[in-house]
Amino acid sequence: MTGSLLRTVAMAEETDLSKKRIMVTGASGFLGRFVINQLLKRKAAVKNIFAPTHQEYDLTKLTKVKKTYQDFKPQIVIHLAGKVGGIEANRKSPGAFFYENLLMGTQIIEQARFSNVEKFVCLGTVCSYPKFTPVPFKEENLWNGYPEETNAPYGLAKKALLTQLQAYHQQYNFNGIYLIPVNLYGPFDHFDSWSSHVIPSLIKKIFTAKKEGKDKVIVWGTGKPTREFLYVEDAAQAIVQATEKYNKPEPVNIGGGCEISIANLAKLIAKILKFRGIIIFDPTKPDGQPRRQLNVERAKKEFGFTAKTDLETGLTKTIKWYRQFNNL
Questions:
Q1: Is 172 a catalytic residue?
Q2: pTM here?
Q3: Which has the least CB within 10 A, 113, 123, 127, 305?
């Protein structure tokens, strides 16, 4: 049996994470800490989980990327690190979003190949989908158009990594998988006005208005666009399940399978916070992509993932954490 065939057979088997050295980039971030928790639930030894920090291992620098592999010699890499932010951050720094995400991903994948990593798990983004994609988005629609303009540089940088992984699979039989999550939310998210996404931004805005006794909140856009949201703990579960069970080069959507308009999302958050004022939408500000909802059948079929946390439950947990974290 040839080495290539042996590797193909091994790739078809489920991976026992308790026996592997695993490197998680972005482990201290919003999603990363939940992925680490899921790995520990799989009885992965703490000493076998490597979480490089940005301070010590800046992944935009090739020497530092090489050092991560030299220092830990991982068998599995879960790449979560990235430069992320909401519409405003993407509009003001499109070059940085493109360059840093592309550079980090390209370098860490290439060095994984040099280091004979057994499996590479790459997190993509729903922002890679074309602006006008039939809803629900199917993985085969990914290349059928240009992304929504405000976050296209970020989305295209991430999508380039899928091309790299598929090319490496074809030429080197490299086992790299690519997961496409919808908008994530939950405890430990970013709530500052610059980098926050829609849910933390709305929670902070509505909570502050209530605290200050204001009778209205102004929200960007028309309120008409729809989004799908996935609770961060569910997303971490999906990533780890895919790490265990999925070994194909085709991308996989990760989501909950339902959408909500921004207007209805704002109303739901206001209800949970018991805000009695009115919500006013500012149509002079950008809406972003018109609709986002993923077809999630492939994730269910390939590695048995189904989201468990409904939106109202997840929002309630997130708001509770926000209050406790800020002593409110």
A1: no
A2: 0.91
A3: 113
